[in-house]
Design brief:
Helix content: 40-55%
Shape: globular
Radius of gyration: 15 Å
Strand order of the largest sheet: 2-1-4-3-5
Number of strands: 5
């Protein structure tokens, strides 16, 4: 079975978010190989422009990816799904995708051009804007919800 990875830029600083992400990560392991990987915050950024910070984060993201990964950015300009549609999307990807399906949540200023260039797809969780910290919890919950939908479990109600 294909591994699903959630790649995050920067440590989760809000305790309730960290606990929620860990809870869903633990639940997901019952359904598929799941890995949560955190790219450390870029240090000594006081004199960096937003563009320079995005570039440095982008370089770090690219170092964590493999050539055969299917990379999906969580991006406000991405495709939107209902929870059931996202479950169907995941089902198709887990059958046809390479070894790893990697969802990437960037830092507070988004992704560098280099990361956008390698992304195969982009998904938006909502047309609303969420903090990059909160997106972690929302996405982990939606990934878990999708797995329960695919396994006909009662977590999701229509």
């Amino acid at each position: 079975m294909m591994k699903v990875q959630l790649l995050l830029v920067g440590k989760t600083t809000q305790d309730f978010v960290q606990k929620g992400v860990e809870e869903y990560a633990g639940r997901l392991k019952h359904y598929l190989p799941f890995e949560l990987e955190v790219i450390p915050d870029i240090r000594n950024t006081r004199n960096f422009s937003v563009d320079r910070l995005r570039e440095k984060e982008g370089e770090a993201i690219l170092r964590h990816l493999r050539p055969d990964d299917l990379t999906v950015l969580l991006d406000e300009r991405g495709r939107e799904f209902t929870s059931a549609e996202f479950a169907g999307y995941l089902e198709k990807k887990t059958v046809a995708a390479p070894k790893r399906l990697v969802f990437i949540i960037g830092g507070p200023y988004g992704f560098s051009d280099g990361v956008h260039a390698i992304a195969r797809e982009k998904i938006s969780l909502s047309r609303m804007t969420f903090s990059h910290q909160l997106v972690r919890l929302i996405f982990a919950e939606q990934l878990y919800r999708a797995m329960t939908i695919l396994n006909n479990q009662p977590y999701h109600h229509e």
